[in-house]
Amino acid sequence: MAKDMTLLWGTGSPPCWRVMIALEEKSLQGYNQKLLSFEKMEHKSQEVLDINPRGQLPTFKHGDNVINESYAACFYLESQFKSQGTKLIPDGPAEQALMYQRMFEGLTFYEKLNAVIYYEWYVPEGERHESALKRNKEALVTELKLWESYLQKLGSGSYLAGPSFTLADVVVFPTVGALFRFGLSPERYPKLGEYYNLLKERPSVKASWPPHWLENPKRLDTLKDI
């Protein structure tokens, strides 16, 4: 089955990482994959545009089915391979409701992270303002405190929707991984630090860990004062 799948991806991209974790959890190793370079603008190449007219990564294809949005690809994999690998959508209504809630809040979390770490990438030099970056940092702090409180309520050793690893963890952990890669303090955010340490040892996460992070494990300091 995995032989019918193709993933075009970029290292360190949380949306790509989401799909890779889902593939691992559903025991779909052995899919066709190609690592592309954002720096060389390979995500805008004809190879990508032929499957994904937005020119974005991930670009994912299963047979003739194209699912490029990372959340959609994760839902698709769970739906099509329900009885294979890890069950990623819990049956209980309370856990399922929390899973969906955290999944979609995860989009805001990712957006607020990007507004800080990629500020200079997104905003042309002449349009940058310290006050705007300061606002973005304050919004990220508010968001981080919210996720700290969510994990606090669930207690030590919990996943985002309760005792089971779910799609919420598949899609939100890559954002948490990026936070700590960019220098977030685990002392300042201990619950997020605990969650990060719990998941980074999970086989699906280790198998899909961004290769350039492995080559250069030194953390950046972009978020050290957040």
UniProtKB/TrEMBL annotation:
SUPFAM superfamilies: GST C-terminal domain-like (SSF47616), Thioredoxin-like (SSF52833). Residues 92-220 form the GST C-terminal domain. One of its GO terms (molecular function) is glutathione transferase activity. GO terms for cellular component: mitochondrion. Residues 3-85 form the GST N-terminal domain. One of its GO terms (biological process) is glutathione metabolic process. Gene3D superfamilies: 1.20.1050.10, Glutaredoxin. PANTHER family: MALEYLACETOACETATE ISOMERASE. This is Glutathione S-transferase rho. It comes from Astatotilapia calliptera (Eastern happy).
